[in-house]
Design a protein that fits this description.
single chain, alpha/beta, TIM Barrel, 27% helix, globular
Length: 331
């Protein structure tokens, strides 16, 4: 049963999940996310303030949002994150999740537990120090892996996000799957997307979801499909005898758009009704006009009545080619 002011799109899909990027800054330089030299980061004043983000979360919570994922950039590089998480954790029943590269999270694990935040997506594209360094352009593999083990030991629900890239980490497809034998983690293989800040978009993809699944079946032929829930992006599979599971996110092929329940808000306050659009509304500028909560609700309801059916339509409607970095979008 939906609320009277439930945020619905023009295709009848309820929006229940907010992906909120709290910064565009990152301490890694992953090749699939940004150029080696990095990007020009926005000044702090150009970002949504913590107070503005807290207000947006509260209003959207009243419109049926029951899950918020904090992303970046890397969330832990922005000062004030834990105070913000403390504030929004007071919203009863709101599920708060984090996506992190795992470099800085170790210092905050106890605080996260005390707030009841127990779901973390950890970006880890390789289980080898040299390959990790090649992909991220930083030598932080041991820190990330030890923090992964700590999170699991402390009872967090951990998902490992791995972008599969030809010629860079193909051998890690099976290595990551093997990790699920003794660790209760969910490995999510993600198709590479064009959000690397280069402006170059591949027309085809070598490691698509079908090829990734075929590779997994060379060692695990008895993979058992797990029923996909509404709003999920990963096709998940059990591996007999393993504590964890694996999943494949067809982010480039866009096979899951039909049940998308996500609202995306970038660090600079751009509302994205689809990952592949180029931003449909400058919410930051609107908030700073002094609008009321009711006006904020009305503009959100209006935006989602013009939502593309899927990622292909959203990309077609863009004003230009994809040239943003994923760190400015929030994934």
């Amino acid at each position: 049963m939906y609320k009277d002011n439930q945020l619905l799109d023009n295709h009848g899909r309820p929006m229940t999940y907010l992906r909120l990027a709290v910064t565009d800054r990152c301490n890694l330089r992953c090749s699939y996310c940004m150029p080696a030299e990095g990007i020009v980061y926005m000044p702090e004043r150009e970002l949504l303030t913590w107070a503005e983000m807290s207000r947006v979360v509260r209003v959207m919570y009243g419109m049926g949002i029951n899950k918020v994922r904090i992303t970046g950039g890397e969330p832990f590089v922005r000062n004030g994150l834990m105070d913000f998480l403390t504030e929004i954790s007071a919203l009863e029943g709101l599920e708060i999740c984090l996506t992190s590269n795992g470099v800085l999270i170790g210092a905050y694990i106890d605080q996260l537990k005390s707030l009841g935040i127990r779901s973390v997506n950890l970006s880890l594209d390789a289980l080898d120090r040299d390959r990790f360094k090649q992909i991220t352009r930083r030598d932080d593999y041991e820190i990330v892996f030890q923090n992964l083990l700590r999170l699991v030991a402390e009872g967090f629900e951990v998902k490992i996000n791995a972008v599969v890239m030809k010629g860079q980490n193909e051998q890690d497809i099976l290595a990551l799957a093997a990790l699920t034998k003794d660790l209760p983690v969910s490995v999510r293989y993600i198709e590479e997307m064009p959000f690397n800040g280069s402006g170059l978009v591949e027309g085809t993809l070598f490691w698509n979801h079908e090829r990734i699944l075929k590779e997994l079946k060379t060692v695990y032929p008895s993979l058992k499909s797990i029923l996909m829930q509404g709003g999920e992006t990963a096709n998940r599979y059990e591996i007999p005898g393993h504590l964890g599971d694996v999943g494949i996110i067809a982010a480039f092929s866009r096979t899951f758009c039909g049940t998308c329940n996500r609202v995306r808000l970038t660090a600079k306050g751009q509302v994205k009704t689809c990952l592949y659009d180029d931003g449909v509304f400058d919410l930051k500028a609107y908030l700073r006009k002094g609008i009321s909560d009711e006006e904020l609700r009305e503009v959100l309801l209006g935006l989602y009545q013009k939502r593309p059916l899927d990622g292909f339509e959203a990309e077609k409607n863009r004003k230009g080619v994809i040239n943003e970095s994923m760190t400015t979008i929030g994934g």
